[in-house]
Amino acid sequence: MSQVGHQTARALLRRLAIEQAECRIPSVRAAIVRDGEIAWQAGRGQVDGRPPEPGTQYRIGSITKSVVAVTVMRLRDEGLIDLLEPIGKHLPDTRFGEVTIAQLLSHTGGLTAEPPTGWWERTPGIEMADLLSRVGPGEVKHRPGRRYHYSNLGFSLLGELVARLRGTPWAQVARTEVLGPLGMTGTTTRPRPPHATGYAVHPYADVLLPEPEHDAGAMAPAGQLWSTTTDLARWAAFVAGDTGGVLSPGTLAEMREPATVADGDAWTSGYGLGLQLTRHAGRRLAGHTGSMPGFLATVWADPADGVGVLFLANTTSGLRPGLLTDLLDILDEHEPRLPQEWTPAGADPALLALTGLWHWGPAPYLLRLLPGGGLSLEPVRGAGRASRFVPQDDGTWLGLDGYYAGETLRVAADHLDLNTFIFTRDPYDPAEPVPGGVDDWH
C-alpha cells in the first residue's frame, strides 16, 4: 500500500531493509503518514514465519505515556483538575504531594526514573497501594521544577489520577475516550493475535532470547500498550493535528509546546506535556519513543507539514536513532510537498486600513493581515518581537505566539496599544499618547 511514487517507495524500503539487515532486527514495520493518510508502509523480517502485516501487534512501550497524557488533558479541559495543582490534592496517599500535575506530565517533578521494585519491565506488576507504600522521600531526586528527569514512576501516578477521577481503570478510560474515538481498535493492554514475540538479539551471534511479558500493574501507564502500524499511523495523524474531537486543537498544541529541554544548550530534544520533542532539518517533531524488553517503537509528527513517521520492532536494542528522520529526508528529497497555491481573499476595509508601517518608539514594524482574519506584527529589520493576533469578541486582539503570547492588543484609529506599549504611525509621534511624553527630535 503506497501513495508515493515507485522510486520513492523503493528508496524508503531500501533504507528500512538496510536497518533490518545491518542491525539484525527479527522484524520491523515502518510507515509514513501524510495529511492523515498512510502514504507508505512496509515490513521486513518475519513474525511466526510470515512477514509482519499492518495489523501485527508490537508493544509500544512509553508511547503509552502520550495516551495517558491525553486523558489527563481531557480532565483539565473539563475543569476537574488544574495542571498547577499538586498531585497530593487528588492522591493524598503520596509522600511527595507537592509535585504538580504539569511537572509529572513534563518529567520535571524530580521523581526517580524507576519505581522502588524489581526490574518492573520484566517482572509481574504490583498494585498501586503497594507501590505507594514503597515510595518515600528518597524517590525525589531533584527539586521539583529544577530540571528534566525522565520518570516512569511519575506516569504511573498520572494513570492513577485518571482512574480515581473517572472511577474506572486508566486503560478503560483510554479505550473509551481516546483509542475508540480515534478508531484505534488494534491497540490493547495485552497482546492479541497476530502479535510479534519480543526478543533480545545476542550481541556476538545470530541467535535470539525471548523476553518476558507481564501485566505491569501499577506501572502500566508508563508502558503497557500494544499497537499496530495502522493504529500508530492514526496516532501520528492525531499528534499532527487531526484530533478527531478527542482534544481541542488548542489543547493539543499546548501539549506540543516545549515545557523543558532535555539536552541543554543544544536543544535538539525536549519534552512537552506527555509528548517528546525533537528538531531535525528545520522540522520540529512531536511524538514519543517506546522501549520495553523485546520491543522498540517510535512515532514522530510534524504538525506544520502534516506528516508523520513511525516504526515498530521486536528487539530489545539495536535500531539506530536516525531511521525515522532518514525516512523523512528521503520523502523530502524524492517527493517534496508543493506549496499551496496563493489565492486572493477579501478583507474588512477597516482592517485593511491598519496594515503597513507602525513604530514602537524609533523601531519600525509591519502590520499585515493574515488569512482567516488574523494580524501579524513583526519588526521590519528582522530583529525584535514578532507575534500573531486573533480577534476577540470585545474588539481586542489576543497574542498567539512570541513575546506577546496571551497579551492584549487594542487598536485605536491612530495608534496601537499592545500591553502598555504604544505603536504610532510616525516614530514617537508627539500627537499620540506615548507614555512619558515626547520631546522634539534634534
TrEMBL record:
Coiled coil residues, start to end: none
Gene3D superfamilies hit by this protein: DD-peptidase/beta-lactamase superfamily
Molecular function terms from GO: hydrolase activity
Classification via InterPro entries: AmpC-like, Beta-lactam-related, Beta-lactam/transpept-like, DUF7586
Domain of life: Bacteria
Keyword Hydrolase: yes
Protein name listed in UniProt: Serine hydrolase
Organism the protein comes from: Nonomuraea glycinis
